[in-house]
Design brief:
mainly beta, 7-stranded mixed β-sheet, 4-stranded antiparallel β-sheet, 52% strand, globular
Length: 119
């Protein structure tokens, strides 16, 4: 299993970024997937999750209405579109494979993509 994130960077408050996660080594279209972030000095925070078909997505309250998670199963790729970014969104963002029917428990993580929101 390999998960490789890309698309991180530095952006001003109010800006946008899109993260991508290229998945390989497993049947991507069969798994729930999640995005998790870890801010400096804090523990991991689950951000969003998506079911295999992509029709259902879930978000932590702090990003609802600003972040959109989606997937392209034909390309084995997961995305996180982040709009109206705030300084408190600064973190290392990971994509992770989630185990079914476990409340988003995750077994494989990528290496992370840094997102920095600063003026």
């Amino acid at each position: 299993v390999q998960l490789v994130e890309s698309g991180g960077g530095m952006v001003q408050p109010g800006g946008s970024l899109r993260l991508s996660c290229a998945a390989s080594g497993f049947t991507f279209s069969s798994y729930d997937m999640s995005w998790v972030r870890q801010a400096p000095g804090k523990g991991p925070e689950w951000v969003s999750g998506i079911y295999p078909g992509g029709g259902s997505t879930y978000y932590v309250d702090s990003v609802k209405g600003r972040f959109t998670m989606y997937r392209d199963n034909a390309k084995n790729t997961l995305y996180l579109q982040m709009n109206s970014l705030k300084p408190e969104d600064t973190a290392l963002y990971y994509c992770a494979r989630a185990l079914p029917a476990t409340g988003w428990a995750m077994d494989y993580w990528g290496q992370g993509a840094q997102v920095t929101v600063s003026s």
